[in-house]
């Protein structure tokens, strides 16, 4: 099993979620986060004063999937979330030793 963690533009969440649902991935965790990378924030003017906003709103999407689906899920996320501009986000993958469904006690791929 592999955990996929994505940092995305907030406006891309629905498109990515719909594409993953269509592929058959239904379990995911979505968190609103703030952060910065190459985009380095932006400058805004408020009441005549200029402010640097270096932490931008992003979406963190997490899911654990069977290893056989990893490359296809990464392709779906990349194709759906890409705008071609700085700030599109990042995808991280982690190996997962086990998963346990608390309600039934199922383990491994059956638990996800």
Describe the structure in brief.
By secondary structure, the protein is of the alpha+beta class.
Describe this structure in words.
With 112 residues, the protein is an alpha+beta fold. α1 (13-23) packs antiparallel against α2. The protein is elongated and about 60 Å long. 13% of the residues are buried. The chain has a single domain, classed as 2-Layer Sandwich (Alpha-Beta Plaits), CATH 3.30.70.120. The longest helix is centred in the C-terminal third of the chain and has 12 residues, at 70-81. It has helices at residues 13-23, 70-81; strands at residues 2-8, 29-35, 42-46, 49-53, 56-65, 89-95. Strands 2-5-1-6 form a 4-stranded antiparallel sheet, with helices on one face. Strands 3-4 form a two-stranded antiparallel sheet. GO terms for molecular function: ATP binding; enzyme regulator activity. This is Nitrogen regulatory protein P-II.
Tally of structural domains: 1
Strand segment tally: 6
Choose one word for the global shape. elongated
Task: Compute the average pLDDT.
Answer: 91
Structural class: alpha+beta
The sequence of SSEs as H and E is EHEEEEHE
**Largest sheet properties:** 4 strands, antiparallel
- Indicate the percent of residues in helices: 10-25%
Pfam family, one: P-II
InterPro entries: N-reg_PII, N-reg_PII-like_a/b, N-reg_PII/ATP_PRibTrfase_C, N-reg_PII_urydylation_site
GO biological process, one term: regulation of nitrogen utilization
Organism: Pelotomaculum schinkii
């Amino acid at each position: 099993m592999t955990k996929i963690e994505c940092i995305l533009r907030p406006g891309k969440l629905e498109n990515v979620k719909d594409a993953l649902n269509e592929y058959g991935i239904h379990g995911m965790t979505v968190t609103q986060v703030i952060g910065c990378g190459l985009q380095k924030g932006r400058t805004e003017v408020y009441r005549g004063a200029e402010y640097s906003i270096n932490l931008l709103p992003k979406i963190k999407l997490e899911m654990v999937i069977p290893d056989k689906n990893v490359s296809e899920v990464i392709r779906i996320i990349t194709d759906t979330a890409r705008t071609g501009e700085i700030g599109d986000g990042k995808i991280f993958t982690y190996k997962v030793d086990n998963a346990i469904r608390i309600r039934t006690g199922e383990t491994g791929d059956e638990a996800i």
